[in-house]
Amino acid sequence: MLRIDFKLYNKEIESQYITECGLMLLSLIEGDLKIYNNETLFFDEPYVNLLELSVQLYRWIHNNIKNNFVYDCMDNEEPILIFTKTNNKYWLIDSIWKKGDTFSIENRMLYNKIKNYIKTLDKQLKRQYGIKTLDLIKKNIH
Questions:
Q1: pLDDT tens across 119-134, in order?
Q2: How far apart are CA 107 and CA 141, in angstroms?
Q3: What is the pLDDT of residues 3-62, one digit of tens each?
Q4: Which residues have C-beta within 8 Å of that of residue 102, sequence separation ≥ 6?
Q5: What's the predicted TM-score (pTM) here?
Q6: Which of 46, 51, 42 minimizes the C-alpha distance to 2?
Q7: Contacts for 131-140 with beta carbons within 8 Å, 24 or more apart?
């Protein structure tokens, strides 16, 4: 079973960046990101742009989950996370920084885990900064 864990860094961000909800804010909201396949660690990286990932995942699940997902991080030249559709029911999860083997996950489970990641991140963002993923979506960022 897929598990997405993260630790949002608690850092001071200037209020102008929060108010603007722009590209700079995407680069400032960072944390540790871990992805597990069952109990096996698949992905483990510090300083991931968690809000940027959330925005891209939100757009993907709300626009067209039929296409592959490619996380194009502003801090890296290559995509760091890719979901490739293998058939009508499964996705292959891969990363250039993977710690374990690529793995498959069922559509509904992937969708639910992504929604849970966004919801959990948004709770912490709201508490720390008074913002959420949808605030950047509305500004048509990234």
A1: 999 999 999 999 999 9
A2: 27
A3: 999 999 998 999 998 988 888 898 899 999 999 999 999 999 999 999 999 999 999 998
A4: 92, 93, 94
A5: 0.93
A6: 42
A7: 131/18, 131/21, 131/25, 133/51, 133/54, 133/55, 133/58, 134/58, 135/21, 136/21, 136/25, 136/26, 136/51, 136/55, 137/55, 137/58, 137/59, 138/21, 139/21, 139/22
